[in-house]
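Practice problem: predict the structure.
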Amino acid sequence: MKITATIITYNEEANVRAACESVAWADEIVVVDSESTDSTAKVATQCGARVINRKWPGFAAQKQFALEQASHEWIFSLDADERVSDQLKRSIASLRDGRAEELADGYLMARRTHYQGRWIRGGGWYPDRQLRLFRKTLGAWNERLIHESVKIKAGARTATLAGDILHYTESNAAYHHRMIGERYAPLAARQMFDEGKRTSTVGVATAGPLAFIRSLVIRGGFRDGFAGLSIATFAAHHDFLKHLMLWEMQREQKAVGRSK
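Answer:
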């Protein structure tokens, strides 16, 4: 069972060494770097990774490109701000020591996020299962603008591994707020618009409160104390902004239609 670990990066000099060391057990590490202006590529090369420089085409497209550069049948995909827990390493090692005919075609694993100094349990953030280990001939990254994931071909078999991917997300409030406004909400709104989804002024007005209740109460965010409250509040902001941007796209579409 030969495994290529793939990582996509952009200005990740603070993270890429730990990410590469986290998958040092892989038979190959491929880092696809999106024209970083810091020392990301240099550090990754020092860690033994094969570094490919490529202009940014979007999350899913870049991850799919990384997959296609792999020399081996099995792919393990890791983000630069993620690490492989010891338990997950042991689970993967046991697969490699087992019988080839007993392997599934893809493996799900939980992702645990570290936020505001603690590991998050609620708010829908855990276990957040991800399919990250798979045969490249049977799996591919979908073409979504946001929340990209691996899709396995029909008939392929998946299983779940013990152990977590450890996600060290940026807990700085200003950064979190900026990413929602500049990346996550705009991409989510565009994805919804392209899929034919529509909203209304009522939808815009209720999106935030509903997201807050869903995160803090229904999904148990209250168990994480102040961090859970922060997550719920940012979830509300994200959903409000996403629906507002979608509503604006709808208005622009109608205006263009009337001008023709």
